[in-house]
Specification:
17 strands; disordered C terminus; alpha/beta
Length: 317
């Protein structure tokens, strides 16, 4: 099968871990082994998050030059190159000899009138204590929210991806059998200006929504969103908490999920299967193959629609 795998930024840098190169390198090495296991039987395209990393770079930049902040699109490009390099390096070490990988910086067009610009929901950077978070909020005028795991975290606008620029180049590499790492951090957010040109914008696109769009455009059979939670939970954190193993997109519409965490994954999964994808899966990195095979995580499918996979593999009558 052709599978788009979206690695969560928190899967690459676990909650509570120091934001060091060594910690990320160790986690990427573990991720590469899971990806290589999938790649032995399937064609994979890898996207990844950058929430912790882009937030750290923004904080470092603000500390260095408070009056000349680096824009988020530039910081997103930096993280896309950095994380892409680490994934490519470790994936090439884990894959059989002769397999080629390529990391591409990917611009993604968003609508400059997207209401998300007026309502930041995308968490980035580290989780601060309540006292530290209040100081940073006052110093940099950043929007902050309470994190589900405690403390405060910065949130930024997360407009919907409209178009993946450079898609033709991605398709050429995929069709040539290259394992492509692209759309990192949801892609570099750009808008079309009044003269028709493209320019960067202050936002971080949700990587799961971009991964779903990428999977649709590449006619992928499956979309795997790998994070630090074992499955989608019903009544998460409540007395009736329970893992959802299989569910349709229509059934998911009746359940509420947090806007800045599981919500985008659910929306991305539903969009993909409703566009003809066979299955979207959500779960932990180490369960990647088990999620694909229905033995772990959560599988989301369309209600009763004909998927691209069923059409491709149908036996003529």
């Amino acid at each position: 099968m052709r599978i788009v795998v979206a690695l969560g930024g928190n899967a690459l840098l676990k909650h509570g871990e120091p934001m060091t190169y060594q910690a990320q390198r160790t986690n990427v090495r573990i991720a590469a082994l899971a990806l290589a296991d999938l790649a032995r039987d399937h064609q994979i395209i890898v996207a990844h998050g950058n929430g912790p990393q882009v937030g750290l770079l923004a904080l470092q930049a603000a500390s260095y030059a408070p009056q000349a902040l680096w824009p988020l699109d530039v910081l997103g490009a930096e993280t896309e190159g950095m994380i892409g390099y680490l994934i490519e390096q470790e994936l090439m070490n884990a894959l059989p000899a002769g397999v080629e990988c390529a990391t591409l910086l990917t611009r993604v067009e968003v609508n400059r009138s997207d209401p998300a610009f007026d309502q930041p929901t995308k968490p980035i950077g580290p989780i601060y204590s309540a006292a530290e978070g209040k100081l940073i909020k006052a110093e940099h005028l950043w929007s902050m929210v309470t994190d589900p795991k405690g403390g405060l975290r910065r949130v930024v606008p997360s407009p919907l991806p409209q178009r993946i620029l450079g898609l033709a180049a991605i398709k050429l590499l995929v069709e040539a059998g290259v394992c492509v790492i692209c759309a990192g951090g949801g892609g570099i957010p750009v808008i079309r200006n009044d003269t028709g040109g493209m320019e960067g914008v202050e936002a971080v696109i949700d990587k799961d929504r971009t991964a779903a769009l990428l999977a649709q455009e590449l006619d992928a059979d499956a979309l795997l969103m790998l994070t630090d939670v074992a499955a989608v939970m019903r009544d998460w954190g409540g007395p009736a908490e329970a893992a959802i193993r299989t569910i349709t997109a229509d059934a998911l519409d009746k359940i509420s999920f947090a806007a800045g965490s599981m919500g985008p994954k659910i929306a991305a999964a539903s969009a993909f299967v409703r566009a003809g994808g066979a299955m979207a899966g959500i779960g932990t990195l180490q369960d990647a193959r088990a999620i694909l095979e229905g033995r772990a995580g959560t599988q989301i499918t369309a209600a009763a629609a004909t998927t691209r996979a069923s059409a491709k593999h149908a036996v003529p009558q």
